[in-house]
């Protein structure tokens, strides 16, 4: 409800392109029912760091009362994009669409310090946009992680000195092989054939979670599905869209739509909740651009087929595993599965099918603080959010923590390590793979 | 008008650097609450201890600036708005449960504890905190105390005042006093009861002793479905006259239930004219008997009565009710929630009157209310970009309240007077009644620095300080209602 003290005396601070419109933000009636569900509000306790406050800041900027300056950028940057507020909101406020557009305005209208700009450009336009470059850098990182240099740097305490220690702990362990190598390959169904799916390997997934991608393929095969990894596929663009770099996200979206169009399949599956929610949002992403009138139809076809791997398997019904596990585990809902895609029961069903006894933690759908690159950018705040999470995790006293998103796995692993908990962190699919 | 830097510096010294906001960009985020009024504060402070609260209050007294307490800012009558500027005391960081006394069924909490968090925290002992405003997942116990909040289960268990036995209060001069304690009754004047519902105008609650109730052995939730709102309203009257004591008895009219159903999929039939959501609680046998009695009464006029089969169906039925305001927010850019009370026996004619008022002003008005205790919440839809429509909305709201008074009701059931209804308070009270209230107010808050210009009409409240009104307040919706 856009009632404010001064009835729009100034011109809007937004440009026309990718703008958070009145139609989007006026759905918020500032009732405040979302406040306690927001991780940044729970930690910081201020309106600026709450969903209601962020939406209000967007309105103030549109009314010309609040410049797109340091304050605006700080508070919008600090949003994890976890979308817990969207689940909590009874008014159906499309918060995700509002904040992504607010960030697009920041990209257009705000000059970040040069180092931050350069790093953002390098990561988003360079690494994540180009798989050859990503592979090259991943190899360097792998070399570093296994080298005397890493040990020496760690021993020297240099990282602590520069405040980089938590960041290094969060960096994924680069896989031995990369999933790119299997692009274009086809993996046959086992047993009676029940369909064919195309797998998105993911950018970080391909270099840091190759074993998970392989487990995903095995589990799909074991369930009678033929699996293809279309050539030419790339990063889903989730991180770009969340960062307000919507043009880059659009390029990546168009590329994926083209790559997957080449193959007929029953579903496009992913094991990363963040990628799934971004791909399910391609229609909204591409709607903003005039070049995309043609792509719009294909985008709709594409989106109809996108499924999280747990969602797809639960819909299909999994085959009983040969070696059910007699394990107790707790499940952490990834935000981009529970809040963005409203998938909560499918992963739990799969775990039960694998023979796991589920011990629910308090607030399984509270964010762990990972949120894409958030834990690298907002180290301290992410750390506090993680602490809150680890209290709930530790209280279950199980030794297996399962989730369904790669980013969450890294963050939770660092949480487990920090507390010294005797606990493994796995993806639902890895658990299911062990049972087959 | 920003504060002199010396005040900000002293506030930082008391509460810590990161506990004080004074930049305009930040203050603008405290110009609103859950309602429709607006005004800018000059600083926001987040104290963590009673001692800090007392020192801040003393500083404000010395500097002559207003203080306005704020919980979660879900209030609907502008209670947490700094109408005359000054310092907002935000309790979001004073949110610890200090003690849970299971044996005596008491808890002592800081004011910023969220209502539902308390119930969750004590659930493992089979206990809960009974007041259940629909905003309970966000609103604070401090706010509940200040507004004397109720909820669907008020019918059986009463409002917040029935669940608070003790308070630690910081007075406007900085003294810390203790009202009541853990026992249900304390000798002398019932200052605890007097303080609850005072909307932050008498003192600041810094610790609250609340009763915890045992979770009931058995709960039954029923949905009675009617073809007309009149039939539902008649049933409310019948249920109460037959002596059925429901724990909750809520009514949604056809328009509201369809809006809610579309958003929440609660299980309300889209083609019905009204539904009653009825909850029965207690010992298993008693609940079974009551259930039979309720079904019998409802069946006289209802099309159908459904009983929730399990907990998830129960939760679904309630989710519809609890998220009703929000669901309306989906289809209208703005809504104005009225809060009036009528005798239960007048439910049918009041609903007819509201329908006439909606027609007269060409507005859509949805009806949802705590039918069991006659607490109405008509939701008036409007578009804030259309000033003429806002005028009509305001006028319709006033007319509904005038009707409530004319049938022997009241202008607020649970949302408080705040700045929204201060101007119409004289409709309810004689000048002598108001004088008594004013004198009590002045005993506690003589300089009118604590939450000024709330509850009492402008002409009465704090005459001596009116001249120095904060400039921003003049631009806000000062005259009650969303003008
Ligand atoms: C969607 C929605 C549904 C609602 N449903 C209900 C309902 O069913 N029943 C109901 O009663 N209300 C309801 N409300 C209104 C509101 O939630 C309640 O009044 C609630 O108690 C306010 O709590 P808060 O923490 O948000 O307080 P705020 O809005 O922050 O403040 C309310 C008042 O309390 C004062 N205050 C806050 N803390 C203190 C303190 N420590 N000491 C002294 N004064 C203090 C403030 O100055 C202000 O006057 C609803 C509101 C919304 C938005
Ligand atoms: S719950 Fe929804 S409508 Fe209410 S303040 Fe939050 S975003 Fe706005
Ligand atoms: S997306 Fe998450 S962090 Fe951002 S405002 Fe919503 S709840 Fe808060």
From TrEMBL, chain A:
SUPFAM superfamilies: 4Fe-4S ferredoxins. Residues 18-49, 69-101 form the 4Fe-4S ferredoxin-type domain. Keywords: 4Fe-4S, Electron transport, Iron, Iron-sulfur, Metal-binding, Repeat, Transport. It comes from the Bacteria. Its cofactor is [4Fe-4S] cluster. GO terms for molecular function: 4 iron, 4 sulfur cluster binding; glycolate dehydrogenase activity; metal ion binding. Binds 2 [4Fe-4S] clusters. It catalyses: glycolate + A = glyoxylate + AH2; (R)-lactate + A = pyruvate + AH2. PANTHER family: GLYCOLATE OXIDASE IRON-SULFUR SUBUNIT. Component of a complex that catalyzes the oxidation of glycolate to glyoxylate. This is Glycolate oxidase iron-sulfur subunit. It comes from Candidatus Korobacter versatilis.
TrEMBL record, chain B:
GO terms for molecular function: FAD binding; oxidoreductase activity. The keyword Oxidoreductase applies. The keyword Hydrolase does not apply. Residues 37-215 form the FAD-binding PCMH-type domain. Pfam families: FAD-oxidase_C (PF02913), FAD_binding_4 (PF01565). Its cofactor is FAD. Keywords: FAD, Flavoprotein, Oxidoreductase. This is FAD-binding protein.
